[in-house]
Amino acid sequence: MSQTYHTKVNNTYAFDLPKQAIEALDAVKENDNHYHILSNNKPYIAEILKDDFHAKQYQIKVNGNVYDIAIEDHLDLLIKDLGFEIGASKQVNDIKAPMPGLILDIAVKVGQEVAENDTLLILEAMKMENVITSPRSGIIKSVSIKQGDAVDKNRLLIEFEA
After folding, report:
1. Which candidate, 4, 60, 13, 2, places its Cα nearest to that of 33?
2. Among 20, 47, 70, 134, which residue is least crowded by beta carbons within 10 Å?
3. Which tens digit of pLDDT belongs to each residue from 109-147?
4. Residue range(s) defining the domain that contains residue 125
5. Contact status, residue 143 vs residue 156, Cβ threshold 8 Å
6. For residues 81 and 75, what is the distance between their CA atoms, to the nearest angstrom?
7. For the Lipoyl-binding domain, which residue ranges apply (predicted)?
């Protein structure tokens, strides 16, 4: 079975590129993000402007024109056909205590908007202060604890609006 890459350019044009065609491309790396490419006896100057390796998305400038490119291989397509998406994370709607401990500080209140990685609270466990951060952006629906509360593992601490 020959490996093929499904490539979408500017979210408009789709191309299926066999692995052999990519391997046959005459590309010379000039420095970190700059390449000199020869294809069908035509020279191209390419520069990678942005890259997200995990999402397989790139922004590339070729001869002065900028292109947004998304690449999928046969496994990505199979996963998508099954109804899953690579990199799609589960929507977290509640925060539970990861371990038993004491609530030292609560940095949020009901109705507050938070961003991913914002501090939600500080939980003391085994004489260590553990900063619990937000796994996603959202609005706080409820705060089920107060400062000074002793909590057991898996106790509901904070809920997000869905």
Report:
1. 60
2. 20
3. 999 999 988 999 999 998 899 999 998 899 999 999 999
4. 94-160
5. no
6. 10
7. 83-161
State the amino acid at position 10 in one-letter form. N
Q: 11: which strand partners?
A: none
157: closest CA among 102, 115, 116? 102
Mark which of 81, 106, 127 sits at the end of a domain. Answer: 81
Question: How far is 75 from 86, CA to CA, in rounded Å?
Answer: 10
Name which of 113, 139, 118, 55 is nearest 89 in CA terms.
55
Partnered with residue 1 across adjacent β-strands are none
Name the amino acid, one letter, at 92. Answer: V
pLDDT in tens, 44-94: 999 999 988 878 899 999 989 999 999 888 787 777 766 665 454 557 889
57 secondary structure, DSSP code? E
Q: Two tokens at 27?
A: 């590309």
Residue 86 is assigned to a structural domain of this protein:
no
Task: Measure the CA–CA gap between 61 and 34, rounded to whole angstroms.
Answer: 9
Give 95's pLDDT tier (boundaries 50, 70, 90): very high
Q: What Cα–Cα distance (Å) separates residue 131 from each residue in 40, 83, 99, 120, 123?
A: 57, 35, 12, 8, 6
